Amino acid sequence: MAQPKKNGKNGQNGNGMRGRPVSVSRTEMVEVVLPQDTNVLENILGGRVMHLVDIAAAVAALRHSRSHVVTASVDHVDFRNPIRVGELIVLQASVNRVFHTSMEVGVKVLSENTLTGERKHTTSAYVTMVSVDSEGRPHAGPPLILETAEDRRRWRDAGTRREMRIAHEKRVGKKA
To answer: Does the pTM of the predicted model rise above 0.85?
Structure first.
C-alpha cells in the first residue's frame, strides 16, 4: 500500500491542488437528546443517530474539500451504549483518507451525562463521501496532510477498509 506523502510539492496533488491538514476537517457536533428523538425506552432512535452521523461526516468532508459532497456509503454501524433523553450526543468527525474523488470520514459518537460530564462511546462509523461539482459530477479533492501518528494510523486503516469495501462490492456484483 502506498504511503502518504508528507506534503508533496507544497502539499499539492497531481492536479496542483493544495493539500489540507486533517485538523482542518475536525468537527464536533453536540445536541441534547429530546423526547421526540427517542423510543419508548427513552433512548435515542438509531435512525436519528445515523442522521447525525451523516451530517457530521458531511461537515468534515466539506471543511476538507471546500466542495459539495454526497454520501456514497456508510460502513458497519454498532450501537454499543444507549443515549438517554436529557443526555448530550457528541459527534466527533474528521477525514481519515482522501482517494481520488472520495474520502473516508471517521465519526465517533459519545453520550455525555449533563450532570456528571461522564462520556461513553456509543457508536462509530466510517462514511465515504464524494466531492461533486454543482451538477453532481464527481471531481478530485485536495490531498490530506497527515500531522500526527494517529492521523497516519487512521490513514493506513482507511486503506484497509477501502480494500475490503471494494472486495465486497465485487462479490455482490456492484461496480467498484
So the answer is: yes
In the chain, what are the domain boundaries? 20-171
What is the rounded CA–CA span in Å between residue 18 and residue 143? 7
> 20-171 — its CATH code?
3.10.129.10
User: For position 173, what pLDDT does the model report?
Assistant: 77
Please count the other Cβ atoms lying within 10 Å of the Cβ belonging to residue 134: 7
Q: What is the 3-state secondary structure (H, E, C) of 17-56?
A: CECEEHHHHCEEEEEECCHHHECCCCEECHHHHHHHHHHH
Q: How far is CA 106 from CA 27, 41, 57, 86, in A?
A: 11, 28, 7, 25
Which candidate, 11, 57, 49, places its Cα nearest to that of 33? 49
